[in-house]
Protein 1
Amino acid sequence: MLQEKIKKAPPPSSGRSPSPAKAGKDWESYIVPQCWESFTAEDHEVWDLLFARQVELLGSRVVSPFFDGIDLLKLKHPGVPDVDGLNAILEPRTGWRTVAVPGLVPDDIFFAMLSERIFPVGNFIRTREQLDYLEAPDCFHDMFGHIPMLAHHDYAEMTRHIGELGRAAIAAGQGHKAARLYWHSVEFGLAREHGELKILGAGLASSFGEAHFSLESDAVERRPFSVGRAVSTPYKHDAFQPRYLVSQSLEKTIADVLALTPEQLLAL
Ligand SMILES: [Fe+2]
């Protein structure tokens, strides 16, 4: 599964929790109503707690378009964002929209959604007891981690292109190549900005434990990003990454990924 899974010992889940997404042939069949009105006061408080501590933690450690997106999409508004409100700003800007899903979606469905400028967000949020543990990507990971960057025109187009690459790779029985490219850029990539090492990936931007770890730990490898290296570098989906790929810049990552054709990806 491409979407992030983390960490630590899980307490039993309670309240709104993920359930397996229903099977279906097309991505539309995985969409469910967000039912924003069903989020409890406690759910909104958990969002506010996660949001406040993550903003403080990140400071200037994330590429600058991330907080531009937070501001533009009015994500500082208290409480769990509603999908319709986000889409009212996001869709006119970059053509992307968010849809609610009940849990992890299969990789083929996920790439198909990306190729249509659709980003799936969990229709649940972790509990207060599970602040640093996700059974499946919840709405904090999805909305805080991913959606701000989709307000950046070129990054949004790069993400759509990865969806196209993913569809082609899966059709050719080589989905892992697109999965690795996605993972080492959109999810767990690092990038230089004015010479400084910054967080690029949503899995890092939304993680309390791994954000600093990725930038500052001496126990990990950091290697220059290239599409070839991304495709040949395995990843872990259930633990901190043992290695991160560092892009020369956000713009370079975008240019490199957009220049990659499905045929070139399959040949890597
Ligand atoms: Fe993610």
Protein 2
Amino acid sequence: MQQTLNTTLLIIGGGPGGYVAAIRAGQLGIPTVLVEGQALGGTCLNIGCIPSKALIHVAEQFHQTQLHSQQSNLGIKVSAPSLDIGQSVAWKDGIVDRLTSGVAALLKKHGVKVIHGWAKILDGKSVDVDGQRIQCEHLLLATGSSSVELPMLPLGGAVISSTEALAPKALPKHLTVVGGGYIGLELGIAYRKLGVEVSVVEARERILPTYDSELTAPVAESIKKLGIKLYLKHSVEGFDASSQRLQVRNPDGELLQLDTDQVLVAVGRKPRTQGFNLESLALKMNGAAIAIDERCQTSMRNVWAIGDLSGEPMLAHRAMAQGEMVAEIIAGKTRRFEPTAIAAVCFTDPELVVVGKTPEHVEQEGLDCIVAQFPFAANGRAMTLESKSGFVRVVARRDNHLILGWQAVGVGVSELSTAFAQSLEMGACLEDVAGTIHAHPTLGEAVQEAALRALGHALHL
Ligand SMILES: Cc1cc2nc3c(=O)[nH]c(=O)nc-3n(C[C@H](O)[C@H](O)[C@H](O)COP(=O)(O)OP(=O)(O)OC[C@H]3O[C@@H](n4cnc5c(N)ncnc54)[C@H](O)[C@@H]3O)c2cc1C
């Protein structure tokens, strides 16, 4: 048994929650140890946000070249492209390597001790990593989440999770995605653009069922145009590997056999609470997640939890913000996690952004609000990007015009999420956004125009 290592802060998990907490703690002079069992950067950098966006970029470039090779309105003449998927994956891996090495360098720069290995909890103040005991004053749990598995579709062979889908050795001829949420659709659309025949099976009646149908309609339209087959209100019963057939039940109760050589299970993620003796702490739970208060403190004093482990919304930027806050609290600052809004982005085609309250939310809450939208069909920049579908929508109180929410769907709208989140955090009113000069020609002008429209005087509509 090695000598016990003592530290002030011990973090389990080096994903965006854990590594950001460690960097901030290091900046604040808190002696910090971070334990990571797999790779720094966690799900986000290695098998989530970054690899998926890299693959989406490859797919878009390939798809555009393919379209131009057939018929180009832009006058581009090019012959039909071919794809070396091995090189695409190597390019994606290069980005991941650069980012994860960057995280390692930042941790080193800020004096964080990184231990590679799987942490096993001994008690609320000590952890074992491969025989090394580490003792701390504060234990920060940031173990993230893992893919939900379906009992009738065990992973293995042709049945894969997003992790395998992000590192294909070869592309299947036909991929069936089980789950029409954002991960399933981002990957399904990317595979389709890479030339794969794609089907999506979703138990609910719409794709992206957590967003309203007005917002998801342009995505549904684009999926149809891309030739992705949608099986809505269908439930999966199993996969027969020998015949390569997925059995699904249609809304009439009939069993269908879908031919497919790969099945991607993308039905959600669950907090990672198993396998490291977490249960010994008997922490209060919030469903499958660890219950936390507004300071990310668990039911045990000086045991903190952040990120996906603490439940929805399971997003990297929430994990990072929580991590930064916990480090500051441990350093003695007074902080609470009370964001006005956390942006949720689907990097589908077109992209979709939701920040703050939607028309549905305000209706449920009985708030008297103005809802206004401005279509990209009337935005010059959208036209120059060959995209006219989608809109920006604003939700504001009728009495004082305080903006409560923004939603947008359209090409490149993920970048508008910053303006949306800032306007909400700063308590902007419709007049603030309408009165800000927005650069021309930009998609952002649709944001200003939505605010103007809510005030009754949009200029370009
Ligand atoms: C395909 C995909 C695409 C996504 N795209 C987006 C996106 O575009 N935007 C977005 O905001 N979010 C996205 N997400 C979600 C995002 O990845 C997560 O919300 C985020 O990574 C959560 O961060 P975290 O720090 O809580 O946990 P994780 O990133 O899951 O990190 C947890 C880390 O803890 C380690 N660990 C666990 N247990 C132990 C232990 N006992 N000992 C040592 N180490 C341990 C794990 O190895 C892991 O590295 C995506 C996820 C997936 C799967």
Protein 3
Amino acid sequence: MQPDVTPFFHQPTGTWTYVVADPASRLAAVIDPVLDYDWRSGRTGTATADAVLAHLESAALRLRWILETHAHADHLSSAPHLQSRAGGDIAIGEGIRQVQATFKRVFGLGAEFVPDGRQFDRLLADDDTLELGALAGRVVATPGHTSDSVSYLFGDALFVGDTVFMPDGGSARCDFPGGDAAELYRSVQRLYALPPETRVFVCHDYAPGGRAPACQTTIRSQREGNIHLKADTPEPDFVSLRQARDATLDVPNLIIPSVQVNIRAGRKPPPEPDGVSYLRVPLDVLGRPLPPPKH
Ligand SMILES: [Fe+2]
């Protein structure tokens, strides 16, 4: 049994969201749903998420899982909006605890924010199973871009998050706190050991060279053609290429709002006494290596 996969593209952030459905039971998982966000006004919107909900309804699918491949730094998650309308459990890799602890410090969050993963319905470990009717999804821990990064394998469809992009896009950056290029290399080796015909669905596409945005490739195409990491690329070559490239990259546009919301499983910070939720902007902290934690 192979899943039906329906992609949704969020142009402003280059993010792919997927609906994965078991054709027999009509159960579905949504992977990496996006919340619209306007940085200038601080206003959120659900038009993009509502298109996913409309698809679930028109295809008569029942939402079982809302899966994050990691706590994203480039877009806000709409997981709670989907859950409030269609149900399902929100899950992420168990490495989220480290990510939460790091960013609790970065954003100076108070005691109300407990970095133990409790904000999510389920924390996933390597090789965990996600039941989806006749399909048994498998969690593949793929740290490197972040410490909470996981990939999801449903039948022949692999959702790789930010590990590799389309072959002409290379690989994901490894310079966030908790990122590690050598670890990403080893994670990608695990993915490259899957059958060559495995369908690969990427989390982002920035359409290099002006081509149309794309989301689907295969393990074979990645092994043979990924511009950063082919099957025979030695680890030291990849690590030095990745680190050199990371040194040239700017901090993502939406890292400040995205991370604060996404470490709360997509929820806004608790409202202040005036009933409004506020985000924090740490001055002169992001964009250079973090100092070691003070105990
Ligand atoms: Fe990411």
